[in-house]
Amino acid sequence: MSVSSPLTSDQSRNSTGTRNGHLPDEIAQDLSAKIASGVLSVGDRLPSERDLCTQYAVSRAVVREALSQLKSDGLVAARAGSGVYVTQRDSTNAFRFQNFSVSDLERLEEAMELLVSIEVAATRIAAKRRTPEDLKKIKRALIGMEYAIASDRLGDEEDYQFHQAIVEATHNQHFISLCQHLEASARNIIRQARSNTKTNHVDLLDAVQNEHKAIYEALKNGDEKAAAEAAARHLQNAAERIRIYLA
Prior knowledge:
Elements: H1 23-37, H2 49-56, H3 60-72, E1 76-79, E2 83-86, H4 105-129, H5 132-150, H6 156-168, H7 173-181, H8 183-200, H9 205-221, H10 224-246
Helix pairs in contact: 1-3, 2-3, 3-8, 4-6, 4-9, 4-10, 5-6, 5-9, 6-8, 8-10, 9-10
């Protein structure tokens, strides 16, 4: 089914012709409206990521974040090797953080309390259950972040894939499902944190990468305690770095 881009409308552009707001939010809201109005019906397959990129004139990362919001809200579901389909909305699957700026310290603190708890527990379990293939995926994301830093790119997608690969290494479907619901918020925090680091404290990029390496080494060694401690240290440091920027 064809989905026309809403980002050329007067509501989505200001007087200079530039886009307003957060692009993934705009796309998610537009697709949600189409689902609510019946333009996209239950069982319909959404256009491919490539087609959505073309229709909305945005990058694949933006489209993926928008789709993750729809998945979190229970509006769509991915079918392996087939695509993303509109599903019945299930209020029990609609939990997710609303996107917020990291400058909102109160909401950041609340978000980090939950994310740290989940990430630390997942990393501890992953250290015990990770397979050689899991380690390859985690290492691949780690190397991807190194290339991103060397290429003066943000590396937020690689950062997210690193943490997602750890969650998948738990081989616990409850952890995996919960983190899928939190995907949009996790991406938002990672993107803003890395953007702040790159813009304001480029000297800390190596420290951030070393924290990721410490997590990987603990996972590789199967050291549950060290893995959990490294994950907690990394996320707590990430929150502290944000506070430094705001100060």
